[in-house]
Amino acid sequence: MAGRPRGVDDAVILRATAEVIGQVGPAKLTLAAVAREVGMVPGTLVQRFGSKRGLLLTLAEQSAQDARTLPKRARAEHGSALAALTAMAVDQLAPMVTPEAFANHLAFLCVDLTDPEFHQHALAIHEAQGEAIRTLLAEAVADGELTPDTNVETLTRIVRSVIAGAGLTWALDREGTLPHRLAQQLDDVLAPHLSPTSQEAT
């Protein structure tokens, strides 16, 4: 069976890798499983990425690059900065459609925390996401969605904590869906800071 080394973009392979992580976790992920997802042979993945570790590091690096474009992409699809913020946060957790998938992606985070090479990419993602939240909140203040006295730095830290914690609490109590849970919690956090105009619109 011949592989298709030049027929499948790296982006497709990396998306498939993330899907397989959600299914089985990073420890049980194999090049063969990823290859099946994209219709290739494992040897082609070895040629491109060198090893399973090389594939996962490439995924981590690409995720860090994608994170840097978060605010621009979110605003391109939403006229409201707050709507863009919610959409961006929900999109980050979109692959975690079940508690099991959340647990498997969380296991990848554990790798990020303990392996120096992975950690540098995870830190870059963390910093980029924080800057994206800060940028969108500042735009919401400038646009009159949030009150002028909103402390953007403080609210940024709170929003980041909500995003980080929503998945864990949802995976434990399993009530509703994760996107709905996160959107509702963000609404709750932002509500005291909404301008009168924004409150009337809700």
Count of DSSP H/I helices? 11
What's the total count of β strands?
A: 0
Largest sheet: none
β-strand percent reads: under 5%
Report the average pLDDT across residues: 90
Task: Extract low-pLDDT stretches.
Answer: 1-5
Radius of gyration from the alpha-carbon trace, in angstroms? 19 Å
Q: What is the succession of H and E elements?
A: HHHHHHHHHHH
Distance from first to last alpha carbon = 57 Å
Helix content: over 70%
Structural class: mainly alpha
Structure commentary:
- InterPro entries: Homeodomain-like_sf, HTH-type_TetR-like_transc_reg, HTH_TetR, Tet_transcr_reg_TetR-rel_C_sf, TetR_C.
- The protein has 202 residues and is an all-alpha fold.
- The chain folds into two domains: 1-67, Arc Repressor Mutant, subunit A, CATH 1.10.10.60; 70-202, Tetracycline Repressor, domain 2 (Orthogonal Bundle), CATH 1.10.357.
- 30% of the residues are buried.
- Residues 1-5 have low confidence and may be disordered.
- It is built from eleven helices and no strands.
Furnish the topology, listing elements before pairings.
Layout: H1 10-24, H2 31-38, H3 42-49, H4 52-67, H5 70-77, H6 81-92, H7 99-114, H8 116-142, H9 152-173, H10 178-190, H11 196-201
Helix pairs in contact: 1-2, 1-4, 1-7, 2-3, 3-4, 4-8, 5-6, 6-8, 6-10, 7-8, 7-9, 8-9, 9-10
